Inverse folding.
């Protein structure tokens, strides 16, 4: 698990370095901010359509082999991009194609690597392992964003892509030496896993997700939070540079506090032993209330005091939700359930920012934060009350004539 965490840190740092440089590269080629957003959407779009297929592949193929091959494929794409940049042969069309191929490979790589990490600890420690993964992710994001500027300044844009390629190769080299922990949930592979046809395999994952109330509730809480909250990089940027009259440096401070809160939240999330959808909802509602107060902030200092707990609550909620998602389904369906979640999550990530941007156009940054927080908190509270009412109704429903206890039937006879 230590080796896997180190490998993931290196890979996440390389990925965030490339993502940071890619935005600058698109601006350099086109001079258009819209093109930058388009390149990000093109890379994310395959997950919307193909994540369910990628999850089915992860359930059917040996997990270590799948993760190693997908990491090697991502390395080849990064090296190809780096070579084209170094030779000054990269145009916007080629960049879009490479971004789409990267997104397609990621539909297999993301669930494979997520579930491979769970194989390295006993089943009861999976929530803690997910928390460690969240901590590594946030640390890698900070390191990658910081290294991007240094790398481009001293070595050029191509060097960032080369560095990311080597980070993928490092993960590929570590995977063969990983060994499942005693008591870990074992993957079913071989003929038994490959028996269903591809379509049936995908439909099985979709059907399980649709019939599972816990997963549907988790999807609802996460979706409404993703659309009306969470996008702090957008809402807080406009709030800081607008009503609070701060500049880019002030927003940089806010971003740093958000990142620090994410790391603290990941550490706390790693201590969870029995995460639940109820906990996820409670944390999301708490974050919504903090968001409302943040929208009312009279100064940057007050906002900075609120930003840290907002980030901590969001990180712990994400860790708890991921733990539920990866442990609730039976082992042979977890890849497909993660695939369904990848498609749903991509829909939120593509539709959330435009919807939030429209809300800010109508209500301003303060109004968007307050309105979004109210919608999140009210929706979660309503869902909780409906669930509680249904539970109470089920507990007090009298037995029907067809369910008369057996002793009564014997006495009547």
């Amino acid at each position: 698990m230590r080796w896997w965490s180190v490998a993931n840190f290196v890979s996440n740092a390389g990925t965030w370095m490339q993502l940071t440089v890619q935005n600058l590269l698109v601006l350099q080629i086109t001079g258009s901010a819209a093109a930058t957003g388009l390149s990000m959407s093109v890379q994310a779009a395959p997950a919307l359509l193909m994540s369910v297929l990628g999850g089915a592949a992860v359930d059917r193929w040996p997990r270590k082999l799948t993760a190693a091959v997908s990491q090697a494929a991502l390395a080849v794409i990064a090296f190809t991009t780096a070579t084209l940049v170094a030779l000054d042969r990269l145009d916007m069309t080629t960049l879009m194609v490479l971004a789409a191929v990267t997104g397609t490979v990621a539909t297999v790589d993301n669930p494979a690597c997520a579930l491979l990490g769970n194989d390295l600890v006993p089943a009861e420690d999976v929530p803690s392992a997910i928390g460690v993964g969240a901590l590594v992710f946030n640390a890698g994001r900070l390191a990658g964003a910081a290294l991007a500027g240094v790398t481009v300044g001293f070595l050029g844009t191509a060097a960032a892509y080369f560095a990311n390629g080597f980070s993928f190769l490092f993960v590929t080299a570590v995977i063969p030496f990983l060994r499942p922990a005693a008591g870990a949930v074992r993957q079913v592979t071989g003929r038994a896993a490959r028996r269903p046809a591809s379509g049936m395999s995908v439909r099985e994952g979709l059907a399980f997700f649709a019939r599972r109330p816990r997963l549907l509730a988790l999807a609802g809480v996460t979706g409404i939070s993703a659309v009306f909250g969470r996008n702090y990089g957008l809402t807080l940027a406009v709030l800081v540079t607008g009503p609070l009259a701060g500049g880019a440096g002030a927003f940089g401070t806010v971003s740093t506090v958000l990142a620090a809160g994410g790391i603290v939240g990941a550490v706390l999330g790693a201590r969870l032993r029995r995460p639940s959808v109820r906990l996820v909802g409670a944390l999301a509602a708490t974050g919504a209330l903090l968001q409302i107060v943040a929208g009312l902030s009279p100064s940057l200092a007050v906002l900075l005091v609120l930003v840290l707990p907002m980030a901590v609550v969001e990180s712990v909620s994400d860790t708890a939700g991921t733990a539920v998602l990866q442990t609730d389904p039976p082992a042979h369906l977890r890849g497909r359930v993660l695939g369904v979640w990848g498609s749903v999550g991509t829909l939120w990530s593509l539709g959330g920012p435009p919807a939030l941007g429209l809300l800010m156009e109508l209500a301003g940054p303060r109004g968007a934060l307050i309105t979004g927080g109210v919608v999140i908190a009210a929706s979660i509270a309503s869902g909780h009350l409906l669930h509680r009412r249904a539970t109470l109704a089920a507990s007090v429903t009298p037995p029907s004539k067809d369910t008369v206890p057996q002793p009564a039937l014997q006495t009547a006879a």
Summary: DSSP finds 15 helices and no strands in the chain. Confidence is low (pLDDT under 50) at residues 191-200, 403-413.
